[in-house]
Write a structure and sequence with these properties.
Number of domains: 2
Helix content: 25-40%
Strand order of the largest sheet: 2-8-7-6-5-3-4
Number of strands: 13
Oligomer: single chain
CATH topology of the largest domain: Aspartate Aminotransferase, domain 2
Order of helices and strands: HEHHEHEHEHEHEEEHHHHHEEHEEEH
Shape: globular
CATH architecture of the largest domain: 3-Layer(aba) Sandwich
Structural class: alpha/beta
CATH superfamily of the largest domain: Type I PLP-dependent aspartate aminotransferase-like (Major domain)
Radius of gyration: 22 Å
Length: 422
Amino acid sequence: MSKQIPVRPSEGLANVRYEIRGKLARRALAMERAGYDIISLNIGNPYAFGFRTPETMRLAMIENLRHSEGYVHQKGIFPAREAVVMQQQERGVRGVTAEEVFIGNGVSELIDLSLRALLNPGDEVLVPSPDYPLWTAAVNLNGGRAVHYPCCPDRDFVPDPAAMESLITRRTRAIVIVNPNNPTGAVYPRKTLAAIAGIAEEHRLVVLCDEIYDQILYDGAEFVPMATLVHHTLCCTMSGLSKIYRACGYRVGWAAFSGDVENAAEYLNGLELLSSLRLCSNVPGQWAVQTALGGYQSIRELTRPGGRLYESRQVILDGVAHSKYLRLSRPMGALYAFVEVRTDVLPDFDDQLFALDLLENKHVLVAPGVSFNVPYRNCFRITNLPEPQVLATVFARIEEVLDGRSAAGPALQIVGSTGKAG
């Protein structure tokens, strides 16, 4: 019998991480299978917390199922692309036609395709820190190098344009903007975005804008579409149905290109080639786009005072305010809070050990801050999708864990639900 040789993964995966669905999530699943009730706050999946896709969108998809059984154009069906064009025009974005719109299997696929069409080995992309980790992973997977620009807690996680510009080299090809931000909930001011747009134009960098949370705003926060500020270099605006329209499983996202499209013809042809290689994106879900963008925007009921997302966010704010250990830059958009643990109170705090402790002993799953490519270890991300009373319970459990860690000191041993050291 021949010697068994293990199948090794590609070396290209060495710098790829996605801890949001990593070891902790796998441990949580194992605990659920063992009979434990786990409160999972690691992923922004509206359906898991009882949210439904608007009925008009479901009906639009169902009524067009008979038109969804064959391949469609690699860029997507025309009604969906035209709806994106209309939205961009209404927001003041100039020069976008259906030819500059690509429909993908969620924004996730479009992030990968846009970077694959752009990068040569060793090219650099400026990515925020903290970031949505798919951006860093996709840059690395496509032969590039993610250069992280800091979005610091003492600036409410808003980037410093001057610090960003200092990181630009001759290999820099693009700047990534995630606004409203995941994981921090920051909504970037117009002045900051205008400065970044100017830097991108001066250095002829592609601006890649992840705006999937563009209508999830609180307390009168203003969302400024980046494409309204970028005119003299290429700008790619990405959004989709997953969050605002609570339709994650439909896997429908779009990328709309604006700005200096004329000098990007070869790049856009390359992106269309990659789109053709996957034939087309999910067709049934595309029929919901026109109804979604042109219809009543029900998300606003959820984000105003009295709405569920608003009230759940308020519980997070209250939970932090009442804690001896926590602080928080007030999230003004999106579905998350990036909570800090005060190192002056818990100097030996470690986000991964804390997350494991919280899961094993209190059956709450959060995402450690290090999952989002930050150099510090005193943060964690939670979502405000659960009912307010659930989040109130969560913060009570978090405080209990932190009380225990404070009392035990750095020698704390994590003991799991099974009674075994973790």
